[in-house]
Design goal:
This protein is of the alpha/beta class. It has 3 domains: 86 residues, OB fold (Dihydrolipoamide Acetyltransferase, E2P) (Beta Barrel); 157 residues, P-loop containing nucleotide triphosphate hydrolases (Rossmann fold, 3-Layer(aba) Sandwich); 68 residues, Ribonucleotide Reductase Protein R1, domain 1 (Orthogonal Bundle). The protein is built from 9 helices and 13 strands. The strands form 3 sheets. It has a 6-stranded mixed β-sheet, sandwiched between helices. Strands 3-2-1-4-5 form a 5-stranded antiparallel β-sheet, with no helix packed on it. A hairpin with a 3-residue loop joins strand 2 and strand 3. Helix 2 crosses helix 6 and helix 6 packs across helix 7. The protein is globular. It is found in: Cytoplasm. Belongs to the TRAFAC class YlqF/YawG GTPase family. RsgA subfamily. This is Small ribosomal subunit biogenesis GTPase RsgA. Monomer. Associates with 30S ribosomal subunit, binds 16S rRNA. Its cofactor is Zn(2+).
């Protein structure tokens, strides 16, 4: 495995800086690794193995293929993900990930399974570009779901309205969408005409990830930002539904600094423990609710409801409140399912420990 000289400032201060390494990571790395390990960043994960970028000398980097077996975990939330920082070791048995560093931020959705588990889409991210195509009418409810996940991650969301060259009135759509995205920059761009791409490149700082439905244009945007054709692109189907082009999450350095993660299209945008994200996504409703007469006001027909008054006055849309209440219910349901699953797993672990303890006691007596 390539090695790099150390420095008083950081373990690998130069080569991995382009991928987001900072001196703050030194202590975390030292706490999980031994002298035979080197730090690296996971740029791709695929079936028990991952590609990790590591320092190669004092000025370059190289990619190693590492086995993820030592950090495999039944909980998908704890398995390696694109964007993770890792301690990598090369030995006679091959190269493998010995440990993962704690995640600073993570974008998580509920998994497709029925076990109420979370799936990490990207780790240690700074900016999340929620990509929405303008060649069809934007689904405001889906946008709100994406923004709730983005806010919950700890990163800064940016709403990217793409294919502006195919929209009849892109600015009018922007005004509508902005009402569903308080506190979020809403950019109108076209990767085909390059319109707005310079602004997008400026706001995607640090580690950025592009998320959205298939066919939204994420890969086309990624190619423009990367300055080369890296991600495969395909035209949207004739029925308006997207085609899956990106099949895995991959981290790549941007020419102007920072790194970009492109992701496969997401059809199901399930919430996962996103209470804080919902509060920020619907911040105006949260603020109005503080003025309601009753603390447990459900904003239906209670007297002194500031939220209902805002709707009657035309200051708040009924659609917005309906979406808020729907997502709150969904998040509470998934949270209760998750709590129940954790309780079952703890009970199973205690039973296993009890059986093992009893077996040991009998063995000693024998």
């Amino acid at each position: 495995m390539p090695h790099s000289s150390t420095s008083a400032d950081s373990i690998y201060p130069r080569p991995l800086e382009a991928y987001g390494w900072s001196p703050e990571l030194d202590e975390q790395f030292a706490s999980v690794a031994d002298a035979s390990c080197v730090p690296g960043r996971v740029i791709r994960v695929d079936r028990g193995r991952c590609d990790v970028v590591v320092a190669d000398g004092d000025s370059g980097v190289s990619v190693v293929h590492a086995d993820t077996g030592p950090v495999a975990d039944p909980d998908p939330m704890k398995t390696p993900c694109t964007g993770d920082w890792a301690a990598v070791r090369a030995g006679a048995a091959g190269t493998y990930v010995q440990a993962l560093l704690p995640r600073r931020t993570a974008m998580v959705r509920s998994s497709a399974s029925q076990r109420s588990e979370g799936q990490v889409l990207a780790a240690n991210i700074d900016t999340i570009g929620v990509v929405v195509a303008l060649d069809t009418e934007p689904d405001l409810g889906r946008i709100e779901r994406f923004l709730a996940l983005a806010w919950e991650s700890g990163a800064q969301p940016v709403l990217v309205l793409t294919k502006s060259d195919l929209a009849e009135d892109a600015e009018s759509v922007r005004e509508t969408v902005e009402q569903a995205a308080p506190g979020v920059d809403v950019l109108v761009v076209s990767a085909t005409t390059d319109d707005g791409m310079d602004i997008l490149a400026a706001v995607l700082t640090g580690t950025s990830v592009l998320v959205g439905q298939s066919g939204a244009g994420k890969s086309t945007i990624a190619n423009v930002l990367l300055g080369r054709s890296v991600m495969e692109t395909r035209q949207t189907r004739s029925d308006g539904k997207g085609r899956h082009t990106t099949t895995t999450r991959e981290l790549m350095p941007l020419p102007g600094g920072g790194v970009l993660i492109d992701t496969p299209g997401i059809r199901g945008v399930g919430l996962y423990d996103a209470a804080d994200g919902l509060q920020q996504t619907f911040s105006e409703i949260e603020q109005l609710a503080e003025e309601c007469r009753f603390r447990d006001c459900e904003h239906i027909a209670e007297p002194g409801c500031a939220v209902r008054e805002a709707i009657d006055d035309g200051m708040l849309q009924q659609r917005r409140l309906d979406s808020y209440q729907k997502l709150i219910r969904e998040n509470q349901w998934i949270a209760s399912r998750s709590d129940a699953r954790l309780r079952q797993e703890r009970l199973k672990a205690l039973k296993t420990q009890g059986k093992e303890g009893m077996a040991n006691m009998i063995a000693k007596r024998g």
